[in-house]
Fold this protein.
Amino acid sequence: MATVVINESAVSSLDLDSAEAAIGHIFYSNEENTQMQAFQVAGVVQDSNLLGLANDIKASVFRLEPAGFSSLSVRIDPAARATALADINRVWREFFIEIPPQIAFLEDTFRSRYQIFAGINQVLIGLSVVSILLAVFGLYGLVSVLAQQRRHEIAVRKVLGASVANLLRLLSWQFTKPVSIALLISAPLGILAGGQYLNLFAERIGGVSWIALSVCVGILVLAWFTVSGQIVRVASSSPSHDLHCE
């Protein structure tokens, strides 16, 4: 009978109540179409994603099988990495003189596995920044043109007693409506696209809706700042000069 260690998911798969109840439990398996073999649980370890975040954590059984050894995992102190590598090479040469060891760090393996996602994220961030900048410049240009076209109206309102704050509130709302409509259309699409992207990962963050809401609020604030600056500049000018020019 082989002694094995299982993870927490395997405890659930075996219909056991707890990790303590799994200790000493015997189960049978005929993996790889071989003869039925008995296994006894000697320990339970926490679930860990060994296949990457794009894969679900599966029920796993760990057993000692010297004939199948092909690699050795060693935990080392990052502060003493050079010393640890030297010791590993020294011990390796005691057994294998002509074959050099092939050493790879787990962090490098995971980094290379997710390098494509890091590239996709950088491209998406770049496109988002460019899109926001173009939108801000376009909004600023639109406000400048419309504010110039309505200089006479603004001057008349100021003569009739309207303050800069009143003009700012009136004109800002006129530009806020199209921005709000655009956000109402784009926010659900962004949430849907973000959810589809996150579905590539078995382990993923939640709260995509809150993130989208925060982005929408940030865009509205940025639009208000863009609009307000131009409107205040036009509304602060002398009404007599604007009426005279008109």
